[in-house]
Amino acid sequence: MIRSMMGRKKVDRNTLLLLHFDGSLKDEASGKPYVGSNMSYVVGKFKNCVSFSGNGYVKVSGTNAINESLYPNYTVDFWIKLKSGVRNGIMSKGNGGGNYSFDIMEESDGRIFFGLQYGGTRGDAICYFTMPRDQWVHLAIVRSQSRYWKVYVNGVYASGFTSTMVSGYYSSLMIGKYRDYGLYLNGMIDEFRISNIARWTSNFTPPARPY
Hints:
By secondary structure, the chain is an all-beta fold. The chain is built from no helices and 15 strands.
């Protein structure tokens, strides 16, 4: 394991974006700082994390992370703690009009929705799953072999779909918010990472330390 002089593991070459949320919004992969609105730092899964109360978000402006044209295989993974009793927007990437997007949000019945959109339609690129509330959960979305999407909750396969849809372009990523529909996150997120490889293709043990 390669470590920096301060003891933290160095960012590996497959990491496109990494936010520790340890008191800042610095991307450890690029060094670029991002901006947030109506969020705070609290004790997280490992050190600190970002906390949302239903009206805030972190904006990663202009990024090619989550772009199937550039990265046929990729992984989006993070730790999340959802507050019970409220509906949550979790994250979204794409244009404001929804012509193309990558979305994770909670439906009114409590199921978590993950889906892609291109040209204003979702087609076969949707799935649903469930997650525990009021506890830390590791969530991973993995694309492999250019067409398989798998969702893992705490390292266990929860849902997925097969589709050739391409939704990713150079656009902004919103963490803690579902696009422009006023649906925000009530909860916490820690160790948010996007990678240009399929880090897992079967059940796994979630990471036990910060990335």
